[in-house]
Amino acid sequence: MAEGSDRSGDATTDSDRSPADIVDDIDRPVLLFDGVCNLCNSTIRAIVRLDDEGEILFAPLQSDVATELLDRAGMDADYFDSVVLVEDETVYTKSTAVLRVCRKLDGPVPLLYPLVYLPERLRNAVYDFIADYRYQVFGKKDECPIPPERIRQRFLERSLA
User: How far apart, in whole angstroms, are the C-alpha atoms of residue 13 and residue 52?
Assistant: First the structure.
């Protein structure tokens, strides 16, 4: 479906909706990311370019929607150690989340998915190394930037829509 489509689960401009109501309406995968991390924000922009169908929705880990999703998954709302993919009520973190997202993208990126068969301990060691140094190498913002207009509808956080 095109980016401008009116698909159930799209972010809303209705600021009266609670995070719980927004989460109840989600019908596709949601990627939670560190909204202040420059690497994470660059990665989200790349995902948007490589996700022609607009399959993946986004929310910063610092948002109320992310807090609601994490709470429903039984995770700490202050969990900022990894990206989190919520897909069909299942939660994936770290390298598994990244590889499951890769599988949904266009172009050659899905070819990375078979890496999921490597031992998770090895994959997550690489993920953790990058995560530990992401601020030092790529920097960070003081707050989550507002996404460009053309991709705002894919963000579930009301304040960004």
Answer: 22
